[in-house]
Amino acid sequence: MPKTVKALLTACALAAAAGAVSAQEQVVNLYSARHYSTDEALYSGFTKATGIKINRVDADDAGILARLKAEGSASPADVILLVDAARLYKGEVDGLFQPIKSKVLNEAIPAQLRSVPTTDGGVSWFGLSTRARVIVYNKVKVQKADVDTYEELGDAKNKGKLCIRSGSHPYNLSLFGAVMEHVGEQKTEAWLKGVVANLARAPKGGDTDQIKAVAAGECDIAVTNTYYLARLMRTTKAEDVAMVNKVGVVFPNQDTWGTHVNISGGAVARHAKNSANAVKFLEYLASAEAQNYFANGNNEWPTAKGVSIENPALKAMTGGTSFKSETIPISAVGANTTKVQQMLDKVGFQ
């Protein structure tokens, strides 16, 4: 059975189940784009703490947004988890989320990692974990100083050295949207032309494929989200250990605006039937217990204030210290991605 059909049938089953739930049973219906086995601990932890059962539908970001539009007011969805700032912004703009007021979330999540509040103080979505967009490089062929900024990805000195996934992938759209927020449209377009000129091959594959390409000598530098590299760093497979030993990692722009971070975030669905439970779930995901699952289970950076990181791979990447991340509003990054896509088409970035 095709995945889209299967997911739709599952959503319909949720709707039927929601209508049949007794007054005594507490549930929350979740549409999630997070496909990480470690998240099971989050769900069981929430149910254990609250007694609220989670019914879950899994799909990708685009599929979830499309389903919410198609289902309209009949949607059984209560809470939405997406893995990209641009998608969260799109869901907000399309009116698919309901702004909520939560003192717990407002105090835990920094302002730049959540949507711009409405006039009455409601917030449409909150970032619950982050992943830094870093540069990996061949330690033998490349000097760290030549790749310690995003700008250098478009510098002629790195011509023919770069591997990267599709420019239109949400992770790259968010990075490019962040660059545009920092330097403006004109400089961003010129930079993207330079990035295209520096490609060692046509964009393809995922972030792990870019790391492998650097280790294999197919290219000398690449861009990846930190959790992909952390997975490789935490494995005991001999081939992965050898791969990691060949590459270095740099958190770009530490002397200027800081490294770009994208978010995995949550929102309450516009037509949620169990909105109070949905808010409780998001508040739980901002708790120290859940934030530690994000960090130690899936190699993400916590967003909640005051949460320490014990993940050995994340510590090793930064030398045991914190890194400087950008502080621009993540909502502005999402808003820039439409113009960025137009730039990509113009400069021929696949």
Main sheet: strands, sense, barrel: 9 strands, mixed
Structural class: alpha/beta
CATH class of the largest domain: Alpha Beta
Radius of gyration: 20 Å
Describe the structure in your own words.
By secondary structure, the protein is α/β, with parallel strands linked by helices. The chain has 2 domains: 3-129 and 262-308, Periplasmic binding protein-like II (D-Maltodextrin-Binding Protein, domain 2, 3-Layer(aba) Sandwich); 131-259 and 325-347, 3-Layer(aba) Sandwich (D-Maltodextrin-Binding Protein, domain 2). Helices cover 45% and strands 14% of the residues. The chain has 14 helices and 9 strands. It has helices at residues 3-20, 40-50, 61-71, 85-93, 103-108, 170-183, 185-197, 207-216, 226-234, 238-246, 275-285, 288-298, 312-318, 330-347; strands at 27-32, 53-58, 79-82, 126-138, 162-163, 221-225, 247-250, 261-268, 301-302. Strands 1, 2, 3, 4, 5, 6, 7, 8 and 9 form a 9-stranded mixed β-sheet that branches. The longest helix has 18 residues, at 3-20. It is globular, with a radius of gyration of 20 Å. It starts with a helix and ends with a helix. The model is unreliable at 19-23 (pLDDT under 50).
Give the key terms.
350 residues, alpha/beta, D-Maltodextrin-Binding Protein, domain 2, 2 domains, nine-stranded mixed beta sheet, 9 strands
Task: Summarize this structure briefly.
The chain is an alpha/beta fold. The chain has helices at 3-20, 40-50, 61-71, 85-93, 103-108, 170-183, 185-197, 207-216, 226-234, 238-246, 275-285, 288-298, 312-318, 330-347; strands spanning 27-32, 53-58, 79-82, 126-138, 162-163, 221-225, 247-250, 261-268, 301-302. Strands 1, 2, 3, 4, 5, 6, 7, 8 and 9 form a 9-stranded mixed beta sheet that branches.
